[in-house]
Amino acid sequence: MTDPRHTFDLRGHEAAEETFRAALASGRLHHAWLISGPAGIGKATLAFRLARILLNGEDPASAAARRITAGTHGDLLEISRAVDEKKGRLRGEITAADVRPVQSFLHHTATEGGWRVVIVDGAEYLNRFAANALLKILEEPPPKAILLLTTASPGRLLPTIRSRCRALALSPLPDADMRVLVPDVPEDVLARSHGSPGRALFLAQDRDGAIAAFVAEILAGKTLTADMLPLIDRIARETEGFALLCDLLGEGLADRARSAARRGDLPVADSSARQCSELDTLRRQTDGFNLDKAQAIRQAVELAAGT
Predict the structure, then answer these.
(1) Exposed, middle or buried by CB within 10 Å (0-12, 13-18, 19+), for 261?
(2) Residue closest to 278 by CA, chosen among 243, 240, 256, 249
(3) How far apart (Å, rounded) are the C-alpha atoms in residues 305 and 219?
(4) Largest CA distance in the chain
(5) pTM for this one?
(6) Which strands form 166-169's sheet, in the order they lie side by side?
(7) Could you give the CA distance from residue 113 to residue 115 in angstroms, rounded to a whole number?
(8) Would you give the DSSP letter of residue 293?
(9) What contacts 191, CB < 8 A, 6 or more positions away?
(10) Angle, helix 293-305 to helix 229-237, in steps of 10 degrees
């Protein structure tokens, strides 16, 4: 998929864009918008689309559009997880130092005399200090300033941050749009991607289906045995192996919790929800502290088995 900065063809989120345009046309544009939806559904792409609307950069040939694409537009600031230079991957959180430039950016006069736009991509990764710093800005926003927050987990944001934003919840993309955006992804993967192009590409990395099959065995009740260790080591070595396993296992546990709740089996619903939460914590700690992934996979298997 194309980088959100370079994407001009927005598919499947026309209703959310129209909501924003209508608010802008009314002269009552809210100062902060919370764009939510599953990972890979196009939240950042929409945020940059809205920024282009405000900054006169909708025409790809315009000077404003070229500056937005290049990351050099003086009235647009993007905040997201920084790369850990030592580990060569994204850090586990957005820190107060990452958010600090927002304050001075918003209180400077717009370089082109119009709006100033801040995109906070992945707002669920704001740590406590960063969240409080952003909250102060949301409480006293300067005029002609817009904050666009994206998140796959709105429940992880401070309630006070959510309450100060207007919500834009994105819906899954229709099959026709999915086939245009990710034409090379197999049909069975598309069926499991929940209308998210990014998720389809993510799932497609399990090329031989070994991780999905392994997760299905665990969810069916198979416990950790010695014959699983070679596969666990292989998954741990793959670039996205651990993330794929956690994603599929978490989805299965969440589905189990919902099914149990619908049929009134509250003990199973509560147990599965707890396992899902613990798996999420294990994943974040493993990524954040660069822990041994093979060991983390073994812990995930034991967690799902309740051992």
Answers:
(1) middle
(2) 249
(3) 8
(4) 66
(5) 0.89
(6) 76-79, 116-121, 145-151, 32-36, 166-169
(7) 7
(8) H
(9) none
(10) 130
The predicted structure's pLDDT at residue 289: 81
Q: At what angle do helices 43-54 and 63-70 cross, to 10 degrees?
A: 140
Exposure string of 278-290, with b = 16+ CB inside 10 Å and e = fewer, is: ebeebbeebbeee
State the alpha helices, DSSP H only, in 148-186: 159-163, 175-181
Any bridge partners for residue 84, and if so which?
89
What is the tens place of the pLDDT at every residue in 78-113?
Answer: 999 988 777 767 888 999 999 999 999 998 889 888
CA-angle at 200, arms to 293 and 285, nearest 5°: 25
- CA distance to 71, 207, 209, 251, per residue, from 234 (Å): 38, 13, 13, 22
| Spatial distance between the Cα atoms of 210 and 216, rounded to a whole number of angstroms | 10
Annotate 87-130 with DSSP letters as a single string.
TTEE-SSB-HHHHHHHHHHHTSPPTTSS-EEEEEETGGGB-HHH
The answer to whether the CB of 167 falls within 8 A of the CB of 148 is no
In the predicted model, what is the mean pLDDT of the chain?
94
Can you list the pairs that 235-238 forms with residues at least 24 positions away whose Cβ atoms lie under 8 Å? 235/210, 235/211, 235/293, 235/297, 236/292, 236/293, 236/294, 236/296, 236/297, 238/205
pLDDT attached to residue 1: 58
Do 286 and 279 touch, CB atoms closer than 8 A? no
Q: Is 158 exposed, middle or buried (0-12, 13-18, 19+ CB in 10 A)?
A: middle
Query: Which tens digits make up the pLDDT trace of 131-159?
Result: 999 999 999 999 999 999 999 999 999 99
